[in-house]
Amino acid sequence: MFAEEMTGWISDSSCGAANAKADKSSRECAASCIKSGSKAVFVSDKDQKVYQVSDPAKAAKFLDKKVRVSGKVAGDTIQVASIGYVP
């Protein structure tokens, strides 16, 4: 496990990297999938890797814009210490 800070998008576990974009349809699709039961995930801008997040309900509140996530990474999971919009 190691601490890391990454920028990217909150998406849904069904579509993953396919919804990791700024366009309105991707944001709406991710929101709809999460509302229908998919978990929120983080998709890294750097390599489009999909990470499970420790608090999907909190992450789902950051669907609107690109985010910066910091926390401990273990495999494909982030134990989120902080999350916020990229200015």
Biggest β-sheet strands, sense, barrel: 5 strands, mixed, barrel
Percent of sequence in beta strands: 35-45%
Radius of gyration: 11 Å
Kindly state the mean pLDDT as a whole number? Answer: 96
Name the overall outline.
globular
Helix/strand class? alpha+beta
Total number of helical segments?
Answer: 2
Give the number of DSSP strands: 5
CATH architecture: Beta Barrel
* The CATH C-level class name: Mainly Beta
CATH topology: OB fold (Dihydrolipoamide Acetyltransferase, E2P)
What does this structure look like?
- By secondary structure, the protein is α+β, with helices and mostly antiparallel strands.
- It has one domain (2-85): OB fold (Dihydrolipoamide Acetyltransferase, E2P) (Beta Barrel).
- 18% of the residues lie in helices and 43% in strands.
- The protein has helices at residues 24-35, 56-59, and strands spanning 2-12, 40-44, 50-53, 67-74, 77-85.
- Strands 1-2-3-5-4 form a 5-stranded mixed barrel.
- The longest helix is centred in the middle third of the chain and has 12 residues, at 24-35.
- The mean pLDDT is 96.
